[in-house]
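User: Here's a chain of 352 residues. Predict its fold as C-alpha cells.
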Amino acid sequence: MTAILERLSTLSRSGQHLRHLPKILEDGLPKMPGTVPKTDVPQLFLEPYIRAWYRPTSYEWRYYFFSLFQKHNGVVNVWTHLLTALAVLLRFWAFVEDEDLPWTSAYVLPLLVYVLSSITYLAFSLLAHLLQSKSELSHYTFYFVDYMGVSVYQYPGALVHFFYTSDQAWYEHFWLLFLPAAAFCGWLSCAGCCYTEYQYHRPYLAMRKICQVVPSGLAYILDISPVVHRVVLCHLSGCQDPAAWYHALQIIFFLVSAYFFSCLVSEKYFPGSCDIVGHRHQIFHTFLSVCTLSQLEAILLDYKGRQDIYLPRHSPQSLYLACLSFFVVACSAGTEAFSRQKIKAKLTKKDS
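Assistant: Prediction complete.
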C-alpha cells in the first residue's frame, strides 16, 4: 500500500508539471504578429495588385522561420518548393533502393550532381520567400541567393541532358562546346538577375523583366536543346519511349511557368482576391515544381534505359571533368557576394 501511495504521489507531481507544459511551449515560441496591409510595409516588399497579408519587417529571425506556419501572401511560395524538395528526395531514395546504384562508378556522378542541385535551388528559393521580409538587406541578400541557386541548378540540368539524354546525331555536332557554353550561360543568368535586383526599384520597369528573362531564356534554350532534338526524333519515328514523354512534359510545364513568371495574370484582373492563393508567382512555382519532377523522372528513365548508348560514348575521366561544376558555383557565389556588398553600401548611404 505504501508503494502504491508513493507511485500515485509521483504521478500527481508529474501531472502538475504537465499542466504547465502548454504555457512553457507558448513562452518558448515567438509571438506571431499579425499580417499588415500594403500601406504598412516599405515599397520594396510590395507586389503589384497584392493588397494585404504582408509580414511586418524588423522582427527577430525566429518569427520569419515560424511564419512557415502563418497565413500570409508568401506562404504558398514557400510550401510549393518545400514539398517539391521532399518529393525529389523521396523519389530518388526509392530509385536508389530499386536500382542499387553503383556509387563508385563515374557514370552515376552526373545524376548525383543533378539531384543535389535540384534540392539546392528549391531550398534557396523557399528560404528567399521565407526570410526576405526581415529587412531591406535581407530581401536583397536572399533573392541574390535564390538567383545563385537557379544558376547552380542550370548547369547540372545541362549535364544530365548531355550525358544521358542526347542522341548520337546531336552529340556528334555539339559535344565540344555544349558544356562550356552551358556553364557560361548559367553564370550569366545569375549575373543578369542580380544586376536587375540591384539596379531597378519598384515600381519596376519592363526593362528589368527583359534583363532577367533574356539571359535565363538563352540558358534554357541551350540546356534543353538535346531534349528537344530527342523528343522531335521520337515523335517523327512514332516511338513509345516513356522518358521522351516525360521530357515533353517538362518542356510544356516550363513554358507555362515562364509565361506566369513574365506576366501579371490573375492578380491583375482580380486585385485583392489572390493575395493568399492564386497570384502568378504561386502558379509559376507550381508549374516549375511539376517541371522539375517531370525532368527528374525522365532523367531516371534515361539513366536506367540508355546505358548502351552513353556508356561507350564517355570515359570516366570525361565525366569527372564535366562534373567539376564548382567553377559555376564559385562564379555565381562571387557574383552574389559582390551584389550584396554593393547593395549594402547603397542602403548604408541611404540611411545616413
